[in-house]
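quick one before i forget lol
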Amino acid sequence: MKKKHLLILLGSVLLGVLLGMIGTGFASLRSEISKDQVLFVLDAFFFWFGIISTILALYFTRMSRKAYNNYQREEDDEQSEQDYIRMYRFLDYGTVANSTLLISMLFSLVTMFPGFRLSLSPFLLAILVIFVGSYCLNTTSLIRNYKLSIMATPKEMLEFLDTYDEGEKQAEMENTYLTLFRLNQILLPELYILLLVLSIILQEIQLVALVLLIVIHLYINFAQLRKTKRYFK
């Protein structure tokens, strides 16, 4: 286990060095690539990413509803269990796809306003977010038998978690813990390296991105104090 940790550390260091070398090597390309070109490519990428997410969200949510209807009618125990598994699995897939659609829309919306660039992409994606989001939300309320609001509060989400069975709740908590760990210990530290590379390429400190990254990193760590205060009185 210690050897594995050492390999991860060495891999991270080597990755940082490699990215730094790449950043230095491509710094000269700054004058050849305009910001408008970069934004055009990113806009096109996230637009089609949002379209693909829409298709997947509608498909998986529809399959979840179909499995739910079969589960309600099925009398055979074995087939009923399979429909039960498909129902929740497809619902989770559809929820993730719906979230990626929202991310695509937010990116397009944020990048449109600073330069007052007229584009139909964010408006089209916004319409899809409303339609697909409503469909996913109604399906979730139907299957989970809990009416979630559009702007759900943390209290509502805790109540929503209580609709899970014990095995699913345990799996959700384990996944959340591992996601938080990877975010805090792996992904965010690697983003510092990425910002360093971008600063080298652009020859300018990415101050806003760095401040946002630090705020998120601090929030994740300070949020743990609520758990400590609650359970270790």
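fyi The mean pLDDT is 80.
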